[in-house]
Design goal:
Helix content: 25-40%
Distance between the termini: 68 Å
Oligomer: single chain
CATH topology of the largest domain: Rieske Iron-sulfur Protein
Order of helices and strands: HHHHHHEEHEEEEEEEEEE
Number of domains: 3
CATH architecture of the largest domain: 3-layer Sandwich
Bound molecules: FE2/S2 (inorganic) cluster
Number of helices: 7
Largest sheet: 3 strands, mixed
Strand content: 15-25%
Shape: elongated
Number of strands: 12
Length: 288
């Protein structure tokens, strides 16, 4: 093997990106004027490369064999990354599925769960795994169909089947009352609970909705609603102390994140969530 071939074999995308990152870290320490100049230089070089690559692709367009070879070359991670960087090829299926999962992750993470892509079975199946709280949640089927599936199908219309892989169940033996973060069916029954203005910031309001005691809290412009029952022994939480977005049970001090109901003391349990909406100053609850 020639020496130039052995040098080429050592060049990887990871190494090339690392070199760029190291230089960017150096530039980040420079003063603003120098950083602006470097950014402008980078843009100018990018523009030049993009224009050259665009012209190459354009010149190959009328030669089907050349276009096939070009498409095949995108299997190379360096070629793919550079063409993606310049917006000259569409995101790969894998990338689009990850984008879809990223779009639902904040919602899942707010409920102590997450999702990961396990595999893609071409041409039309994606296998995903619900992890964390979502894995052991009785509402996981709803989470999968209403949240994850919808997002994947929106980002990747060619994926028509989403299969759930077995997850790492963090709470298999623990009865946990979760409601799917995607439980927003049109056929829900909404019941008036309280006027929005009656909800003070960061304080609990207790209400009775259809014979059930619930607690409501306003967090900036968001309203959350939970069953008035601690996940420990089911004692009422309405006398609990709220501080810095954390609700503390007055009985044995279990702590909960008010924005998600996630338990900070025992992460495997969570407050039972009820869907809530605000319509013309009316806070309405749909019991789960
Ligand atoms: S009942 Fe709430 S911590 Fe025990």
């Amino acid at each position: 093997m020639s020496s130039s071939n052995s040098v080429t074999a050592e060049i990887t995308l990871e190494k090339l990106l690392k070199d760029i990152e190291s230089l960017e870290a150096v530039v980040a320490t420079w003063d603003e004027h120098e950083r602006i100049t470097v950014a402008a230089l980078k843009r100018a070089i990018d523009d030049l490369n993009k224009e050259a690559l665009t012209r190459v692709i354009r010149s190959l367009k009328n030669t089907p064999a050349a276009m096939t070879a070009l498409k095949e070359s995108t299997a190379d991670e360096v070629v793919y990354s550079v063409l993606r960087h310049h917006g000259l090829i569409k995101p790969s299926l894998h990338e689009r599925i990850e984008q879809a999962l990223d779009s639902v992750r904040p919602m899942l993470q707010g409920h102590g769960g997450n999702v990961e892509l396990v595999s893609i079975d071409l041409p039309s199946t994606a296998v995903v795994r619900l992890i964390g709280a979502c894995s052991g949640c009785p509402a996981s089927e709803l989470t999968l169909s209403e949240g994850v599936e919808k997002a994947i199908k929106e980002y990747c219309p060619e994926i028509t089947e989403i299969v759930k892989a077995k997850g790492i169940c963090t709470s298999s033996d623990t009865p946990v009352n979760f409601v799917s973060p995607f439980a927003r069916g049109q056929d829900k029954k909404w019941v008036f609970a309280v006027e929005f203005e009656q909800l003070p910031e960061d304080k609990l309001v207790v209400c009775e909705v259809e014979g059930q005691s619930v607690i409501l809290a306003r967090l900036e412009n968001n309203v959350v609603c939970y069953q008035n029952a601690c996940a420990h022994l089911g004692m009422p939480l309405d006398m609990g102390e709220v501080s810095a977005g954390v609700l503390k049970c007055p009985y044995h001090s279990f702590e909960y994140l008010l924005k998600s109901g996630e338990c900070l003391t025992v992460p495997e349990v969570q407050l039972q969530t009820h869907a809530v909406r605000v319509v013309d100053n009316r806070v309405e609850v749909s019991l789960s």
